[in-house]
Amino acid sequence: MAKRIDVSGLSAYYGTTKAIEDISMTVEPRSVTAFIGPSGCGKSTFLRTLNRMHEVIPGARVEGKVLLDDENLYASAVDPVAVRRTVGMVFQRPNPFPTMSIYDNVAAGLKLAGVKKKSVLDGVVEKSLQGANLWNEVKDRLNKPGSGLSGGQQQRLCIARAIAVEPQVLLMDEPCSALDPISTLAIEDLIGELKSQFTIVIVTHNMQQAARVSDRTAFFNLAGVGQPGKLVELDDTQRIFSNPSVQATEDYISGRFG
Amino acid sequence: MSTATDSVAVAPQLRRGLTTNRLPSWAPAGIAVLSIVIGVAIGLLGSLDSKIQWGLLAGLAFVGLTYGLSAKVEGRRQAKDRLATSVVWLAFVLAVIPLAALVFYTVQQGASVVDARFLNHSMKGVLQTEAGGGVYHALLGTLMQVALATAMAAPIGLLTAVYLVEYGRGRLAKAVTFFVDVMTGIPSIVAGLFILSLWILLFGFQYSGFAGSLALAILMVPVVVRSTEEMLKLVPNELREASYALGVPKWKTILRVVLPTAIGGITTGVMLAVARITGETAPVMMLVFGSDIINENPFEGPQQSLPLYIWQQYQTNNDFGYARAWGAALVLIAFVMALNLVARGIARWRSPKSGH
User: Fold this and answer.
1) Contact B243 A82 (CB under 8 A)
2) Candidate from B240, B247, B356 with C-beta closest to A109
3) B47 Cβ partners below 8 Å, 6+ apart?
């Protein structure tokens, strides 16, 4: 189920602006990798290059290679739609489809891919909602609109929707930044459970969160305003937070920066 | 605490209490009644002929009295607030009067004419100078012409809007936007002339309901494009991204996520465009030609339509014709109003649901 990601020499642009420069890293399968760093350093941009969501923005382009178990996502024969089926994504703000019920939201990925069999969909919806720790809260109102749930529930609904299509990798772009501490805890627990099946990459501004949920942590930084973001270092989370090898990382995680 | 003392020092003239004198809550209504009385009184005493003058006096009295009283009792700031509110109310009343008067007058004049017989009879064999006859052929014609025009314009407009919002980049999109803008400004008679010269004079087809609906479609397309465009732009990008991230192709995202989210607004826009072309007279006059008998085939031979019927009955210059014109006007207004209600119903029914 889970795949390894190998990135080499990756730069991403918005029009003529270089957002991230020459990033190389390896993301291990069945682990949680956290990206931390100041705002505007390109964490989210880099995350979006991992499932070719970056190019959805007009004028955006990517140079370099992203290997998913030896397959280059940016090879010319690769279909971005197929990439996104393999590498799922959860966004910063919960974004359930407003016209769909809870059930249809979770089933959306499969339904829109042409799966029609009710028994298959029922099974996937239940499994995904259970996987997202939401089943017990919504099992009696699967036909109610997804937008009627609380923020934390909506975000777990979006996670259920993302894992319903059984991706190999799950990208999470600050999934807890719009949530209260209790919902955040629920999602962090969930991440801990999901890593047995998926390769998870999470962007977060919350360093305690990175320390709590991730196995490895990558620190991104930028040299100055208008400069592209760069990967400073990637190491075991424990080492990053106790004894990082780069001074900038230590400054950032201990609050001495600027 | 220090800031509070500072501000006292800086602005000692400011009043410090939290309570002020207030006008009672019935004051605006009371002032409105008083102003109407004043308007009527001055009108009667000054023997002003025009009721419009009475109304204007009442309006002025309303605004003036509100401001004066409020300034006296509540102070200047409150008085300005009340002044703005009273002007808004006045503008509202001014806007509603013609609307209400139009509906009232049409119902008054038309209600006695409209009955089952009027609705299911044509003008076949009825002399212009005698009573009787009906509107059936015109209603049928209008329904067919509008339906045909919508069948042509709605898909074209919808797809154009989808192109502009979801795909359009660069020169082509700019050109399309420009031409849609130009089309919005086409006078209906010009659209009629265009189809007349192209369809009837150049291609040699007959006058028909379809020829009219071609011109109506030209008028309808830009309205549909504009409203649909606005509705599609309102769909948050996050929903598109959520769909892409599930591995859903773009076309399917548009079809299954974007359009359903916007469908309420799109339907309302199309219905309003339909309502707009239903009342068009000029192209119909040139292309549909008008007829006194029922023509159930919109593709062949002259048809009738409601606006044209109204105009023709008005032209007869006698009381029976006028009565039929009012009756047809009432039918037309009711038809358009029904369309609007249906549009609102659909918008409410299909709009994204929230809550439980």
Assistant:
1) no
2) B247
3) none
Residue of chain B whose Cα is closest to the Cα of A101? B353
Structure tokens at B120: 């299911």
Place of tokens 């042509």: B152
Cross-strand pairs, A14: A17, A60
Place of tokens 């109003």: B337
Q: Count CB pairs under 8 A between chains A and B.
A: 88
* Cβ distance of A91 and B241 shorter than 8 Å: yes
Query: How many angstroms separate the CA atoms of B68 and B79, rounded?
Result: 8
CB burial of A90-121 (b: ≥16 within 10 Å; e: otherwise) equals: bbbbbbbbbbbbbbbbbbbbbbbeeeeeeeeb
Structural contact between residues B110 and B326, judged by C-beta atoms closer than 8 angstroms: yes
SS3 content of chain B, % helix, strand, coil (to 5): 75, 0, 25
**Cβ of residue B169 closer than 8 Å to a chain A Cβ:** yes
CB spacing of B247 vs A158 below 8 angstroms: no
pLDDT digits (tens, 9 = 90+) for B72-108: 888 888 889 999 999 999 999 999 999 999 999 999 9
CA neighbor of B246 nearest in space, from A55, A51, A207? A51
Query: Nearest CA to B34 among B62, B7, B56, B60?
Result: B62
Q: How far apart are CA B277 and CA B297, in angstroms?
A: 20
Q: Residue B239: which of A97, A141, A165 has the nearest Cβ?
A: A97
CB contact under 8 A, A112 and B246: yes
What phi and psi, each to the nearest 5 degrees, are found at residue B72? -65, -50
Chain B stretch 257-286, residues whose beta carbon is closer than 8 A to a beta carbon of chain A: 257, 260-261, 263
- Smallest Cβ–Cβ distance between A84 and the set B236, B238, B246 belongs to B246
Query: Which CATH code, of 1.10.3720.10, 3.40.50.12280, 2.60.40.10, 3.40.630.30, is assigned to B136-350?
Result: 1.10.3720.10
pLDDT digits (tens, 9 = 90+) for B114-146: 888 888 888 888 887 888 888 999 999 999 999
* Cα–Cα dist B135/A225, whole Å: 73
Which positions in chain B touch A81 (Cβ < 8 Å)?
244, 247-249
Residue B19 pLDDT > 80: no
Identify the residue among A52, A55, A73, A95 best suited for mutation to test binding to B, counting B beta carbons within 10 A and taking the highest: A95
Instruction: Find, among A57, A53, A37, A45, the residue nearest to A11 by Cα.
Output: A45
Among A87, A104, A83, which residue's Cα sits nearest to residue A172? Answer: A87
B248 and chain A in contact, CB less than 8 A: yes
Structural domains in chain A, CATH included, are 5-189+199-253 (3.40.50.300)
The dihedrals phi and psi of A10, each to the nearest 5 degrees, come to -95, 125
The CB density around residue B144, as the number of other CB atoms within 10 Å, is 22
Put simply, whether B170 touches A (Cβ < 8 Å) is no
Q: Where are the domains of chain B?
A: 22-110, 136-350
Q: Which of A91, A112, A145 faces B256 most closely, judged by CB atoms?
A: A112
Share of chain B above pLDDT 90, in %: 55
Residue B247 contacts A where some CB pair is shorter than 8 Å:
yes
Beta-carbon separation of B242 and A85 below 8 A: no
pTM: 0.81
ipTM of the prediction greater than 0.90, yes or no: no
Residues with Cβ within 8 Å of residue B85, at least 6 apart in sequence = B28, B66
